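Subject: for your reference before the review

Hello V.,

The reviewers asked for a structural picture of the protein, and I figured it would be easier to keep everything in one thread rather than splitting it across files. Below is the amino acid sequence we used in the manuscript, unchanged from the supplementary table.
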Amino acid sequence: MNSMHSKIPLFKLTVEEKGVIQDIKDFVVRISGLPHCLNGEIVDLGDGVNGLVMEFDEEAVRALVLGAVSSLRMGKSVRALNVPFTIGVGDACIGRMLNALGKPCDERGDLEFSDHVPVFRMSPPLTDRRPIDTFLPTGTKLVDMLMPLGCGQRQLLLGDRMTGKTSVALDAILHQADRDVVCVYCCVGKSVSGLEKTMSLLVESHALDYTVVVAAPDNAPVAEQYIVPFTASAIGDYFARRGRDVLVVFDDLTRHAWAYRQVSLLLDRPPGREAYPGDIFYLHTQLMEQAGCFAESYGGGTMTFLALAETQQGDLTGYIPSNLVSMCDGQVVFSSAIYAEGIRPAVDLQLSLSIVGGRTQPPLLKALIGTMRADYATFFEVSQLSRLSSLSDAASKTLKHGEAIRDVIRQGHHHRCGLAEAALLLFALKRGLLDNLPAESRQAFCDGIGDFAASGHASFLRRLETQAELTPEIEDGLALIIKDYFAQEKHDAAALA
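And here is what came back from the structure prediction:
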């Protein structure tokens, strides 16, 4: 008897749930017959096309089509995979452009992934976080001086179209060239031509060597535009769990909200304010909570978010802008009026701030900045009054100092400023050396002092990059460089004469 049982082959039973497509509405399909599905689960729609379960009830499941809708038809069989939506990750992603599904789209061949991670996941708990205590330089003088960024911070770049938000965000990526930072640039609903320009800039600057580009431009399916920020966050989280510092740029979340609005309307969810669904705040909060400075139990890395959002005619009270302001650790507000005056970056200092970054700013910069922000605010008030009446000597002095501050923080696109150059500019400003200079000479000093110092005082500049405190010795060194600069300028002017 035992010998007879030993000859009976054993079979492994595989149980699959299958359903049928009942309805197709643009990129949303209605499926019946999948009673055990979960939100965020992947279903096989056939012909290599998958779907993402968005909601379900007793009668049907609604899923987003992640692929070509043209291959689908009503009555087609659907198979449940019983797995969450995951993407491949690994060091091979660095230097490549991926789509929202984590697949390469740069025509450079396939990738060999070392791991797979879920796209939609819970944010790290409070016990796996630590205080933000490390400065993250962006290369933009205005930000590093007056709105410093910390590793693990969530900073919002807010303003009208064409006011320079993307340029500042890209400068932050380019400035990480000499730092061990992995950058993730997430393109959401932007034009294809704009994405191509960004890729060209990253390639020419060799920034693609440490950057992952995750793109769903305006010609990508709306479903991918909805998913792509979560894909970028999942990739960043993979590196942060391995102890790396990560900078993620979302360009931009206003278009992400537009995509989610389309998804929600096709899912027959009731529209709310500005036709957005009621859970749009939760959606963006779920995304922004992924950033942070993590404890060793979570890998010890950091993930910093630079989120871009668009306003209409400078209105910060719009639904999406006000939502994002409330969930970030500060905002940099760009003004179209300041942009029209030719000031770059066109940042409104009175509306911009950084809540947690100030504690991470190097003491050297903090000591040199002093009352710079308050002085600049006073300058704006006095400049308004100067149009109405004559000014006292004190007011004229305030105007001159404010104009010097404005020239110091003025900066063209992709002209980055390091810590040492910022220290030189702030030292000259604090000593009042720029207040009485002609505008052309002052601008020439701001543009040229960095290169001048690098050519003759390279060792001192390297010391400045690591110097924590402003000591009398450092002050003497800064004064010597500035003195040599003006002596050289005077010599050159005499030679030309």
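For the response letter, the relevant points are probably these. The domain at 366-496 is CATH 1.20.150.20 (Lysin). Residues 448 and 485 are 9 Å apart (CA to CA).

Happy to draft the paragraph if you're swamped.

O.
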